Structures are given as C-alpha cells and as structure tokens.
C-alpha cells in the first residue's frame, strides 16, 4: 500500500490545483526549504526569525509540515485534497520532488501531482473516514482509512447521492416556517402534535433526525429552541392547550419567501427583547448575559442544569447566573430548569414545573441526575449553534503520573505522545460527538455509577474531539512540568495489559521540563485539579510563557504579586509606633498571609490593621466584623431572598476579595476581620479553613460546582479582643493558621503610643501618667486599658477627661469585677480622683509639655 497524505488548502481554489497539476502549502516568508535541509530545529529557527510574533507552540507544528512536505513526501505517494469550494475530494499521485516557486504570489512551496480521480462526493466514504480527513493540520498522514480512498482510485467513484447533505446543520429557518404552516392549517395545536406534523411535511435529513445525548431528535430540539424566538417575535402564543398562530405570524408567513431565513428574524427579535429587559432593569450589561439567555433556551422540557454548569460555559460565575435568572423583571422563559448545585429548587413552583415535565425528585429534594444537562453537553450544543466565541487555541492538562498504578510520563516523553486509558471502551472514531459517545460509554461502563460515566464521556470527548492539532498539552511528574504541542489526530491502540488506550502524538518542548516550584502559583494550583483531563485554556498565556521558557532553556517568567511595601518612617510617625515593629508585621504577612492583633480594648488593633492594610494594598481593602450569628453564607457566599420572591446566590466579602485578587495577581488585597474571635470560625470558614494553610491547593465549594483556591495575594488581618476571649482559649487549628501579635498597654509598642501622640500634639504628658498608674492597679493583663480612649481631642477639653473616665473606663472595670467589687469599691480603686492622687505623689511639681518622641 502506498503512503497516503491528506492536505488542506485554504488559499488556492481546487480548480486551479487541478488545472496546474500540483498541491501546495503556505509560509511564503520561508525560501527554498532544500537550502535549510531536513532539520526540524533549523526549520523552527528559520520560522521563528521570519515570524517573531508567533507563539512558540506553533513553530514546531509549522516546521513539521514544511519538513514532511519537502522531504518525507515521496514520488508515487497518494494525496487526498478536500475541496473548500464543494463537498468533494480530489485524489492524485505525487509526480515529482519538492519545488519552490518564488515567482507566484501565494503558496510557493509545491509538489507536482497527477490527479487520478476528481470531484468524489463526501458520501462515497464512511463517516469515520470523513472524521480522519477533518484534521485541522495542513498536512497529515492518512492511516486508518487509506484503503477506502485507494478503492475509489482502483474502482472508480461509487454510485452515491448527487447532493450530499451537510452533517452538522439543522435547517432552523425551514423548521420554523413549517411550524407556522402547521398552526395556520390546524389552529391551536399541542407541541407534540406539531412535532409529528412537521416530520410528515418535510423530508428531514439524517442529521436532523439523529438524536442528542438525551435521546431527543435534533429537529425537535430546534423547534423547541426556536419557539422561544417565535414567541418573542410575536408570531405564536403558548397556552396550556397548545400553540396558537398570531396575526403577526400569519403576516410573516404570507409576506416572506422561501429564501428568507425565519430563524434569523425571530432570533433577532428575541435578542432585542432580552436586551430591552436588561436595559429596563439597568443591570446585567456584560456580553455574558445574552449567552445565559441562549443556554436556557437549549434546555428542553424535562431537562435541568445548574447555575455552575451555565457559568462554566459562558465564562461567568454561579452567583451572577443565579441573580440574573431569578430576577423577575428579566423573566426568562424556562428559568426554573436551572437549579443550584446540590440544592433543591428555591421555589415550590419551580419544582412543580419540573415535575410537570417528568423530572422526579429524591427524598432530599434533588432532581433526577439522569435528566441533567452537563457542562460539556451545553458547550457542545452552543458551539454547534455558533453561540460561543471561537477560541483559536486551547491548552490541556493530561494526568499521567499515576494511572492504574503506573507512571506513564517518562514513556510519553520518550515516545512523543500522551495517552488516555480506556480499558473498557470499544473502538471509537476521532471526532466523535458526545451524542455518539454517550450510548457507547453507557453500555461499556454500565457497571460504573452515573457520575463516573459522565466523567468518562467528558474525558473521551475532550481527547478525541475537542483536543486539536496545534493545541498545547501539559503534564506533571515528580515535581516537574512538561509542555508540548499536539501534532496528530487521536488514535486508539491495545495495551500490553490487554485493555485499550487513546493516543495523541506530541512534540515535547523540553524533556527535562520545568520545576513545579518555579511556575506561577495560579497555574500550579490549577494543575492540582483531580481529573484525568483538564481544560487549561484560561491559563494559556501562562502556559505559552512556560513553553517559551522551555524552548529557549531559560527560567519561566512568573507573574506573581509585587513584594509588600516596606514600612516607612512616615508611617511609623503617623501611627506612633516603632518602624521596626511595623516592618515585623509586614514580614509576618509576607511569610504567612494571616495575622491577628490581639489585646484589650482601646489598644488600636483595628486602627493599626487598617493603616497597615492601606499601606500594603492601597484601596484594595475590605473590612468585615464577625459576631456570634455570622455564618459561611454571610462571609463567603450563600443564598439570599430577593425582591419579588425567590433566592439568589450572593457573594460575601471573601468571595469578592478573591475575585478581585485573581483579576489582579500582582497587587495585594487585604481583608480585615474585626473581632474575629466572636465568630464560630469552623462554621464561618467551612471548607475554606483548609485554604488558610494550603494556599496552592483546591477545595470543592459548598454552593458552587467548582474547585476553588485562595490566591497568594490575598492577606487577612484579624483583630481579637482579649477582654471577650483569652487567646489561651483559641483552638489549635486557628493558632496554626495565623500569626499572633500582642497589643498590651504595658508592653511595646502600645506602652509608648499615648506619650508619642501627646508629644506630637503638644499636650501635657499627665494623661499618659494617669493611664500608666491605672494599668498598674489592674492585675489582669487582658483588662488593662488601651491608649486610644485618650487619643481624641474631646478628652483634652474642659471636663473631657473626667467624662471619659466616668463613661468609658469605669464601666469596663465594673464589668470586669462583677461579683467581686461593687461600683463604690471600683471607683475607690480606679476612680480618676484616686489615680490622680497617686500620680500627684510621684509627679514632679512642673508638668511641662513633653517633646520626647
């Protein structure tokens, strides 16, 4: 059998290739490849020099195509060239060596071809052969289905339908027109009767009658999806008895022609209506919200999904999706089909609506998982309809360090590939859709749970179909990260253990890899997600930087936060504390990003926390105060009632800080938790407690179906009033996760703050002497009085000191000695007169203002 090549040409029409008897490829900036030689490294260098802005991962792919075209293609090899102008193939034989034609404007790299058969319809070949020819590489070997193409060369073109149908297109406009005709002829008609009638009135294509992963014919999905648009356009009404054609519907049916695509007209009306409602509400202005509209439209009767699934597809977050869908003013039809993760629907009417569509609920109030539309189901459907923005290149992690007890990564690096173990999976084809994979996975893994089958389908679909030539692939082994570029389509092979695996060829940038400790924490955290295949496209810039570093054999550039701003003399002077003490606070935050100031009331804990936070983070500071009723839902995220009824998932202060920090990884962000010891920390932090100690790990969230981590540029400063609770009573888990700094009135730096402030204000030092004497009389260090009570101008006016002592100081001490001393005894021991008398006995006769700092 001859070697067979597939080649795609987007620049030169097929008619010109046939007339000129050649095939060609681009890269005009590269001169005669023979002068460079059959050297992949030299070709990459030439391409890099000619394309300085090219992504590093693209260069090995381009070099491989040029090298194969010039040196591996041999005279006598067969070549299959799909036409871009018609659904046909042209097949020929390479008739000579590589040629370079500098005189032509496009595609100067050429090979002469003797065309053997031309204009062969796509329907002459099996679907799996079409999948193989659908590779996105410019040049590739045809291996699995070469015999099919050779048979056409030997036996001629078989008798096939002259007008091959397009496999991946539903005629939405024709279906909508037919629905209107059914309603015109029959009047009010139930939906299921409309579906049956449409199927008898037009000849549906094989693709339109094929079923989705949920077992519903695609034409029926289109009718259901399009009916929302037709309602928005005013063409039909939906009632309990059936659908009704309106006057506007009759008008559009009579005035439009067969050439008019009614789906585009109704779709535009729907988008205009949704935009008007968003404008009326005055919120929801980003381009994500129209995508949420389209995602909900795709949910058919009897199906449901979650806020997290939609958020993952449209690039939003679950709270935003929930808030949008539950807003009554927005009024999205079918919004009850979207529910929270692991929670019952918020409203009884929503559950009733789902039950009316055949969705059952378990004892916990959760809907039937078999009726759920997954993230990947939504993504595939929206991709098919062209609703999602295109992504030119993706990146993937494939886990191989521990697969069935084996470390596969060394073999991957040696053999230039990645694999996915599919021990029970029958032979499947490259490019298989989720609809085609679902019944296979369900049958081959019937012994597994529903969740396992969904994960198997997601992984197989990603490996076979979503991963494409030119995409980046990442794997981790023994503390090192390896990056490569996918070169070929997927294939399946048997393993030595008697099972099977899927294979993708990869060109690894550097077999030595990069140390995991040297890469960005954002990327390293994502690499810890416990799935066999993970979409890393959101981190593709970091991966391309890493690939660039491996190509050039230099350390990777790490996008980390800037160093914390050091304590300045000006800050120390403003706060009346030593600069060295402030620097110690900042150093502690740099080492362990959680710090607690603890001490009695009035020692300036909150004031210092705010000042230090603003110094290191500028305006990126939030403050929250804990109390006994404070909960996880208040602190991180939880469901809250909204105006008009229902609930919505609302982010709390920590979720907001983390979102801002992830968008700006180089900046510090500080959350101040005032009186942190008053809250039940295990209850408030929940699963996030773990992240305080392990910032580079992930946890699964309570209300959102996502893995979450706490960025390293988020800092938490807490304050703790020891008059409420001694630090000795703080549990070991909290002690381990926070650094603690005391602020006691009789210790540094607090014992000098008041004197420094009085000196700066030009006031007598007597008030500081009074405070020292008062604290000398208080035996319990956790109840000594802090200086902030006396650092207000009102205290130093006529009668101000006596009033402060009587209304602020003595009540604290009466509470402290409750049951031990009555109010008279407290005043006798701690009253201003008693303390002043003691100071007078030791004070110098002259009380001049102190200027000592």
Automatic annotation (TrEMBL):
Tagged with keyword Zinc-finger: no
Domain of life, per lineage: Bacteria
Annotated protein name in UniProt: GTPase subunit of restriction endonuclease
InterPro entries to which the protein is assigned, alphabetical: AAA+_ATPase (IPR003593), ATPase_dyneun-rel_AAA (IPR011704), Methyl-DNA_Rec/Restrict_Enz (IPR052934), Mrr-like_N_dom (IPR025745), P-loop_NTPase (IPR027417)
GO MF annotations, alphabetized: ATP binding; ATP hydrolysis activity; endonuclease activity
Organism (species): Brachybacterium faecium (strain ATCC 43885 / DSM 4810 / JCM 11609 / LMG 19847 / NBRC 14762 / NCIMB 9860 / 6-10)
Stretches assigned to the AAA+ ATPase domain: 591-748
This protein's UniProt keywords: Endonuclease, Hydrolase, Nuclease
Keyword Transmembrane helix listed: no
């Amino acid at each position: 059998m001859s070697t067979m090549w597939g080649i795609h040409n987007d620049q030169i029409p097929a008619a010109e290739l046939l007339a000129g008897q050649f095939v060609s490829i681009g890269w005009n900036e590269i001169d005669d490849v023979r002068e460079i030689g059959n050297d992949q490294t030299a070709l990459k260098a030439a391409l890099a020099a000619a394309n300085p802005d090219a992504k590093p991962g693209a260069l090995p792919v381009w070099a491989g195509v040029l090298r194969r075209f010039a040196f591996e293609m041999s005279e006598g090899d067969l070549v299959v060239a799909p036409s871009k102008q018609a659904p046909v193939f042209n097949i020929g034989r390479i008739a000579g060596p590589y040629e370079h034609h500098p005189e032509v404007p496009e595609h100067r790299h050429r090979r002469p071809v003797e065309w053997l058969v031309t204009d062969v319809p796509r329907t002459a070949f099996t679907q799996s052969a079409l999948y193989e020819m659908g590779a996105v590489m410019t040049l590739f070997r045809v291996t699995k289905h070469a015999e099919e193409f050779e048979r056409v060369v030997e036996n001629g073109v078989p008798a096939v339908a002259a007008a091959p149908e397009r496999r991946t297109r539903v005629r939405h406009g024709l279906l909508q027109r037919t629905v209107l005709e059914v309603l015109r002829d029959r009047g009010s008609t139930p939906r299921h009767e409309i579906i049956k009638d449409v199927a008898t009135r037009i000849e549906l294509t094989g693709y339109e009658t094929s079923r989705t992963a949920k077992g519903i014919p695609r034409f029926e999905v289109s009718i259901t999806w399009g009916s929302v648009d037709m309602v928005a356009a005013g063409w039909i009404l939906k009632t309990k008895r059936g659908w009704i054609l309106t006057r506007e519907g009759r008008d559009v049916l009579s005035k439009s022609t067969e050439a008019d695509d009614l789906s585009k007209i109704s779709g535009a009306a729907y988008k205009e209506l949704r935009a008007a409602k968003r404008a009326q509400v005055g919120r929801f202005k980003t381009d994500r919200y129209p995508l949420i509209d389209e995602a909900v439209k795709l949910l058919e009767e009897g199906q449901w999904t979650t806020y997290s699934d939609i958020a993952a597809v449209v690039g939003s977050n679950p709270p935003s999706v929930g808030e949008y869908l539950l807003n009554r003013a927005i009024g999205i039809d079918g919004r009850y089909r979207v529910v929270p993760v692991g929670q019952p629907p918020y409203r009884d009417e929503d559950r009733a609506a789902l039950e009316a569509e055949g969705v059952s609920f378990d004892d916990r109030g959760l809907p039937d998982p078999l009726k759920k539309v997954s993230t990947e189901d939504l993504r595939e459907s929206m991709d098919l309809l062209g609703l999602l923005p295109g992504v030119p290149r993706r990146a993937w992690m494939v886990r191989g360090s521990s697969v069935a007890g084996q470390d596969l990564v060394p073999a991957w690096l040696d053999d230039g590939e990645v694999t996915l173990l599919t021990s029970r999976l029958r032979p499947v084809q490259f490019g298989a859709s989720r609809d085609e994979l679902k019944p296979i996975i369900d049958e081959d893994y019937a012994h597994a749970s529903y969740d396992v089958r969904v994960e198997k389908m997601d992984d197989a679909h990603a490996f076979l179909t979503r991963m494409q030539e030119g995409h980046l692939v990442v794997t981790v082994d023994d503390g090192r990260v390896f990056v490569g570029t996918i070169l070929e389509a997927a294939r399946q092979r048997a393993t030595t253990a008697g099972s099977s695996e899927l294979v993708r060829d990869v060109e690894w940038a550097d077999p030595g890899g990069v140390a995991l400790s040297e890469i960005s924490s954002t990327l390293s955290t994502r690499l810890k997600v416990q799935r066999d295949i993970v979409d890393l496209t959101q981190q593709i810039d970091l991966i391309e930087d890493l690939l660039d570093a491996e190509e050039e054999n230099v350390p990777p550039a790490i996008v980390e936060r800037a160093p914390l701003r050091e304590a300045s003399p000006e800050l120390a002077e403003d706060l009346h504390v030593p600069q060295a003490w402030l620097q110690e606070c900042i150093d502690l935050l740099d080492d362990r990003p959680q710090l607690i100031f603890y001490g009695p009331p009035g020692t300036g804990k909150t004031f210092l926390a705010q000042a230090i936070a603003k110094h290191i983070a500028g305006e990126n500071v939030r403050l929250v105060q804990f109390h006994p009723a404070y909960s996880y839902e208040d602190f991180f995220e939880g469901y809250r009632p909204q105006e008009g009824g229902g609930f919505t998932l609302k982010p709390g202060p920590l979720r907001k800080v983390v979102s801002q920090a992830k968008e700006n990884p180089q900046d510090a962000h500080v959350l101040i938790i005032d009186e942190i010891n008053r809250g039940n920390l295990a209850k408030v932090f929940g699963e996030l407690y773990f992240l305080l100690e392990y910032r580079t790990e992930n946890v699964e969230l309570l209300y959102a179906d996502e893995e979450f981590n706490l960025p390293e540029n988020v800092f938490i400063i807490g304050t703790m009033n020891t008059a409420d609770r001694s630090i000795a009573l703080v549990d070991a888990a909290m002690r381990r996760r926070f650094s603690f700094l005391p602020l006691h009135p009789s210790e540094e730096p607090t014992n000098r703050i008041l004197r420094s402030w009085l000196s700066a204000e030009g006031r007598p030092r007597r008030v500081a002497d009074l405070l020292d004497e008062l604290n000398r009389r208080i035996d319990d260090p956790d109840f000594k009085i802090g200086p902030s009570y006396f650092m207000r101008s009102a205290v130093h006016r006529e009668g101000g000191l006596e009033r402060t002592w009587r209304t602020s100081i003595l009540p604290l001490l009466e509470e402290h000695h409750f049951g031990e001393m009555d109010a008279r005894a407290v005043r006798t021991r701690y009253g201003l007169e008693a303390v002043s008398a003691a100071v007078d006995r030791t004070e110098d006769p002259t009380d001049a203002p102190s200027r000592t700092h």
